[in-house]
Design a protein that fits this description.
The protein is mainly alpha-helical. Helices cover 70% and strands 5% of the residues. The protein has 16 helices and 4 strands. Strands 1-2 form a two-stranded antiparallel ribbon. Strands 3-4 form a two-stranded antiparallel sheet. It is globular. It starts with 17 loop residues before the first helix and ends with a helix.
Length: 389
């Protein structure tokens, strides 16, 4: 008797529901759209990246490479093989010397002030004024600077390899320390006073900003005439009250304040405009609520205006630090770096080393160290502002 054949099993896949097919299609379209958006974004950014790599990153890396060579500008121009690789020799020449020792009592006054500042930072941390990260970074930098670096000096028979470098670094730091807070505070004060919608404030805002559009040559010429003991308005004022005019440019104790005053006058307008933009972003309702509660001017500024301007203040300070570390024209045109290197700054020293002495390798090493200084101070300010925000 014949056995009936079993039906073959159905091995075909079950039909995909229409909803699943639509979901898969939508996912594929979204993925394709994201890919096209990413490609379009990279294409838009590509011109900037090419220019950035070509004109900023490549020269920077080239500068690092040159800083590791004994690179005489004229010799290499005549013979490209004249550059001699010295590794970190230029940095050793810059930062170190022969017979360098460390002493506890060297520059004890400055180091004592530094230790007091570190104690104040520690107290602020305990009171919650600053964050832990900022406090640790500041204490670490303070211990490195005041505890170690300022204790280094040449012994009896020792000498720095470059005797001018560290005093010039001190001049640059002094200039930045005097200029940045002055520009920031005066710019903020002007912005608070001129943040009004009347004609007088508009005229004064324009007047204070006009100095910003002048070139450094014009600015230095104006202040050379102003500081002149014979022709300047300051000299005429001193003579009118029976006093001897001051020799601002030729006096070693007054030359640095002279270029600081000229720089503050020149840089004030930009800081004022940034603060005005920040003030106009603060909602008027906050001030109205504070006045209804009976708050006076100073509490309003302290608890409403200043916290709202945190990001603007950070922007102003970081830009001023980067700008004034690169000071050149004021020192070069007003005082020529004098008297006796009292106003010699790093950028002018780099210029003289590279183009007057033709030591391009050593000048490149100086430029790299200047970049590190600017980076450290800017990053520290950004860290502080981030924690305050």
């Amino acid at each position: 008797m014949a056995v009936p054949a079993r039906p073959a099993p159905d091995t075909a896949a079950p039909p995909v529901p229409a909803v699943a097919r639509r979901t898969a299609g939508a996912t594929s379209r979204r993925s394709s759209r994201r890919w096209r958006d990413a490609v379009a974004g990279y294409l838009f950014v590509a011109p900037f990246l090419v220019a950035y790599l070509l004109f900023l990153v490549t020269p920077f890396l080239r500068g690092i490479w040159i800083s590791m060579h004994d690179w005489n500008l004229l010799a290499v121009a005549m013979n490209p093989d004249a550059a001699r690789f010295v590794g970190m020799g230029n940095y050793t020449r810059m930062l170190w010397g022969d017979g360098i020792i460390w002493s506890l009592d060297h520059q004890w006054g400055v180091r004592l002030l530094g230790l007091l500042a570190m104690a104040l930072i520690l107290w602020w941390w305990r009171q919650g004024v600053i964050g832990r990260g900022t406090a640790l970074a500041a204490l670490g930098a303070g211990l490195l600077l005041f505890g170690l670096l300022l204790g280094l000096h040449p012994g009896e028979d020792g000498r720095w390899n470059d005797r001018r470098f560290w005093p010039i670094v001190g001049n640059t730091l002094t200039f930045v320390a005097l200029t940045v807070p002055s520009v920031t505070l005066v710019g903020l004060a002007l912005a608070l006073g001129l943040n009004r919608d009347d004609r007088v404030s508009a005229v004064l805002r324009t007047a204070f900003f006009l100095s910003q559009v002048l070139s450094v040559t014009v600015v230095t010429l104006i202040w050379q005439l102003t500081f002149s003991p014979r022709q300047g308005i300051i000299g005429h004022f001193f003579r009118s009250i029976g006093l001897q005019p001051l020799n601002w440019v030729t006096d070693a104790s007054l030359a640095m304040p002279a270029i600081v005053i000229a720089t503050v006058w020149w840089s004030l307008g930009f800081a004022m405009i940034l603060f005005l933009a920040g003030l106009q972003e603060i909602p008027a309702e906050r001030y109205e609520a504070a006045r209804i509660d009976g708050a006076s001017l100073w509490p309003i500024i302290r608890f409403i205006t200043l916290p709202a301007l945190t990001r603007t203040t950070t922007l102003v300070v970081v830009l001023q630090i980067i700008l004034h570390f690169q000071v050149f024209g004021q020192s070069h045109l007003i005082t020529r770096g004098g008297p006796n290197d009292a106003t010699q700054v790093l950028v002018r020293y780099i210029y003289q080393t590279g183009f007057r002495n033709s030591e391009l390798g050593y000048a490149s090493a100086l430029a790299i160290v200047l970049f590190v200084f600017m980076l450290v101070f800017a990053m520290l300010q950004l860290r502080v502002s981030r924690e305050e925000g």
